[in-house]
């Protein structure tokens, strides 16, 4: 449907207005009367909201009228939604928070959302966070969706204290960029995983989840309001039961007590049996699994759409949003000043290419120094919080014989600290001068790099002017 003209939509109580807007299109939406919300955040009465590259739903508990203008938004009003079950979940979580704030800290809701791709997990996380914040709670948002990270660049895991509602137009990244520009909120703690899916390197992924769990415990010990508000964990979409090992690990490490399984009966049933098995010998079952229906509004996003979404997320990390722009600054860095590392063996040649009889000696947590050359052009690198050994120099490794010519194995330096190192920020390699042996790196923080050990991942991003 093409609709450039302004149109009014009336919603009865319990209905939602669903729309899909492509990246090249824009719609403007205004609440004319009544009350309405987008994934749990209330629309203001006079505000005009602009959406581009977004699929969403404006839901109304009491009924409302909206004015919408723009093109190609495939809009319709739906009467059947899973909102009743979602609000019931929220109320149950809120009761647990009340118990926790009353002194029973073990009651604090520690919620993980799992389910297939495009089942609405991130949208549900956003809704539950917004409902919690609207009740003066300060939940932690734990993002284990490595491919589609919400609060920072992809290929990471992170935890963010959520104290304000998530931005209606700019979502999770809007929440973060507004922190830098206009609102005082805590920024996420981030770890560079460097691979796309948890199953690509489960050993490393589990190590990072343990780090994250330790950081959460530290925060909870210092901040009872946050501890009592609990946490909401978003995960990568998968129904492949053979790949649920990382989910099981995270359930234990983060002491999840409520597992929400969205939109997949089989996954619910299998996970429920696993939870039963995990609680064998314990006085009581620690994790309750709840089955939730997928919203009929969720949209299956194809690879191109996801790529555009990822690109926008990275752009917003470096340049903010349209409403709250950030400036990024170029910094020139000599090769000899930095070390770029990679963790994990998937950057190596596959085992099948090894000579017969040879076995792989590498592990999932092997750390490699990356040769500083043009292969790093456009890479998004994490600046870690670890110190560089004083005697480290560029490209100290010996040539690796296993096939991947961009990777060298360090012989001199012990980089074990890099496994599980926290990312204090990200830079984008925007220029490489092989004659002068230097990079130009762009970062939203001006000045010299605060630390000199960087972690590479799978993410490349090219700034399109
Ligand atoms: N009720 C709804 N109406 C319209 N669009 C929706 C609705 N709920 C979710 N969406 C959209 O559907 C898409 C998939 O939703 P979402 O990102 O929440 O799924 P997910 O399960 O987290 O996906 P992933 O597989 O990436 O983990 C998104 O574009 C989201 O904005």
TrEMBL record:
Ranges for domain Clp1 N-terminal: 11-100
Subcellular location: Nucleus
GO molecular function, one term: polynucleotide 5'-hydroxyl-kinase activity
Binding of ATP, residues: 16, 118-123
Gene3D superfamilies: Clp1, DNA binding domain (2.60.120.1030), P-loop containing nucleotide triphosphate hydrolases (3.40.50.300), Pre-mRNA cleavage complex subunit Clp1, C-terminal domain (2.40.30.330)
Disordered as annotated region, ranges: 391-412
Keywords: ATP-binding, mRNA processing, Nucleotide-binding, Nucleus, Transferase
Domain Clp1 P-loop: 115-320
Biological processes annotated in GO: mRNA 3'-end processing; tRNA splicing, via endonucleolytic cleavage and ligation
GO CC, one annotated term: mRNA cleavage factor complex
Superkingdom of source: Eukaryota
Domain Clp1 C-terminal: 331-463
Family: Belongs to the Clp1 family. Clp1 subfamily.
PANTHER family listed in its UniProt record: CLEAVAGE/POLYADENYLATION FACTOR IA SUBUNIT CLP1P, POLYRIBONUCLEOTIDE 5'-HYDROXYL-KINASE CLP1
Function text: Required for endonucleolytic cleavage during polyadenylation-dependent pre-mRNA 3'-end formation.
Subunit description: Component of a pre-mRNA cleavage factor complex. Interacts directly with PCF11.
Protein name as it appears in the record: Polynucleotide 5'-hydroxyl-kinase GRC3
Organism from which the protein derives: Coemansia erecta
Gene behind the chain: CLP1
């Amino acid at each position: 449907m093409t609709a450039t003209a302004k149109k009014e939509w009336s919603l009865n109580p319990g209905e939602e207005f669903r729309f899909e807007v492509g990246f090249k299109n824009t719609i403007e939406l205004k609440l004319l009367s009544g009350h309405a919300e987008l994934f749990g955040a209330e629309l203001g009465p006079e505000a005009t909201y602009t959406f581009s590259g977004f699929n969403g739903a404006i839901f109304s508990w009491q009924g409302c009228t909206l004015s919408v203008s723009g093109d190609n938004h495939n809009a319709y009003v739906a009467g059947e939604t899973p909102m009743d079950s979602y609000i019931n979940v929220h109320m149950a979580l809120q009761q647990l928070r009340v118990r926790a704030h009353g002194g029973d800290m073990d009651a604090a809701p520690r919620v993980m959302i799992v389910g297939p791709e495009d089942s609405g997990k991130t949208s549900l996380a956003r809704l539950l966070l917004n409902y919690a914040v609207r009740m003066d709670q300060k939940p932690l948002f734990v993002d284990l969706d490595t491919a589609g990270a919400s609060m920072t660049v992809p290929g990471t895991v992170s935890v963010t204290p959520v104290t304000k509602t998530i931005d209606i137009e700019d979502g999770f990244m809007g929440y973060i960029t507004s922190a830098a520009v206009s609102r005082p909120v805590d920024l996420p703690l981030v770890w560079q995983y460097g691979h796309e899916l948890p199953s690509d390197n489960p050993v490393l992924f589990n190590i990072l989840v343990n780090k994250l769990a330790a950081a959460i415990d530290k925060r909870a010990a210092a901040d009872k309001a946050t501890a009592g508000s609990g946490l909401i964990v978003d995960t990568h979409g998968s129904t492949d039961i053979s790949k649920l090992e990382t989910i099981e690990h995270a359930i234990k490490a983060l002491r999840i007590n409520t597992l929400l399984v969205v939109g997949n009966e089989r996954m619910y049933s299998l996970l429920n049996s696993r939870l039963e098995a995990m609680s064998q010998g314990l006085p009581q079952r620690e994790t309750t699994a709840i089955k939730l229906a997928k919203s009929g509004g969720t949209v299956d996003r194809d690879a191109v759409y996801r790529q555009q979404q990822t690109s926008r997320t990275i752009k917003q990390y470096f340049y903010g949003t349209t409403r709250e722009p950030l400036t990024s600054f170029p910094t020139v860095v000599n090769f000899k000043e930095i070390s770029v590392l990679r963790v994990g063996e998937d950057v190596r040649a596959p085992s099948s290419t090894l000579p017969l009889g040879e076995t792989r000696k590498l592990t999932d947590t092997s750390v490699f120094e990356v040769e500083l050359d043009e292969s790093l052009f456009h890479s998004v690198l994490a600046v870690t919080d670890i110190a560089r050994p004083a005697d480290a120099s560029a490209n100290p490794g010996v040539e690796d014989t296993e096939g991947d010519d961009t990777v060298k194995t360090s012989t001199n330096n012990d980089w074990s600290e890099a496994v599980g190192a926290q990312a204090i920020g990200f830079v984008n390699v925007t220029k490489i001068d092989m004659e002068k042996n230097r990079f130009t790196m762009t970062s939203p923080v001006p000045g010299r790099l605060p630390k000199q050990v960087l972690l590479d991942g799978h993410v490349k991003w090219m700034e399109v002017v």
